[in-house]
Amino acid sequence: MNADYPHPIIAREGWPFLAIAAAIALALSFTSWWPLALLAWLAVIFIGQFFRDPPRPVPAQENAVLSPADGRVVSVEKSRDPYLQRDALKISVFTNVFNVHSNRSPVDGLVKSKWYHAGSFVNAALDKASLENERNALHIATHDGADVTCVQVAGLIARRILCYVGPADALARGQRYGFIRFGSRVDVYLPAGSRPKVAVGDVVHATSSIIAELA
Asked: Which of 71, 87, 134, 205 can bridge 95 by disulfide, Cβ–Cβ 3.0-4.6 Å?
């Protein structure tokens, strides 16, 4: 099964950037400035790969927690959830500029709360980014009563966190709910008894990778 999304090739956030870059590249192609034209077409290719948004298969396992982002796991640890003030299992995924940047819901559930915090833009691969950087957090209550906190964290280059859901919105596992432009990080805080299925250094893919199991 694939998570439904109406723009499975290029994310809607990317079309304006892609159109501008293509127009510039096309205009330069009709001039004698071929080195600039070549650079412009390379920019078109980079923008296209950055904003790609492929459909992903959704695992059927009911207690699975899915990766909310593409990238590399940089943290799997017992931690304190700063939003729900509870002990939790924290799993963090760092997304670089070559990864897909769509953010997907890790579980089925209902959004109970949403928090936005302005902040700095240190390297998102560092642990301190979770508490210092610009971030947007969602509290998702699953249908089985588990509480999951999913946090979009801006990075060193990222300057725009986009989140399209809020309190009372229902989310399905793998459903696209947001986007972070350029390098970023997503933190997931799970109930303390959850079982991690990934380790630091693992490469994961949004929706299709299982990062933990709820107890």
From this structure: 71
Active site residue 209: no
Q: Label residues 39-63 b or e (16+ Cβ within 10 Å = b).
A: ebbebbeebbebbbbbbbebeeeee
Residues sharing a CB contact under 8 Å with residue 16, sequence separation 6 or more, in sequence order:
none
Q: What is the CA radius of gyration of the chain?
A: 18
Angle at 85 between CA 82 and CA 90, to 5 degrees: 55
Q: Given its phi and psi angles, is residue 207 left (phi above 0), alpha (psi -120 to 50 degrees) or beta? A: left
Quote the CA–CA distance of 213 and 167 in Å, as a whole number.
24
Q: What is the pTM of this model?
A: 0.83
Cα distance between residue 215 and residue 212, in whole Å: 9
Catalytic residue among 67, 105, 184, 209: 184
The owner of tokens 């805080």 is: 189
As assigned by CATH, the class of the 64-213 domain is: mainly beta
User: pLDDT tens, 139-163?
Assistant: 999 999 999 999 999 876 655 788 9
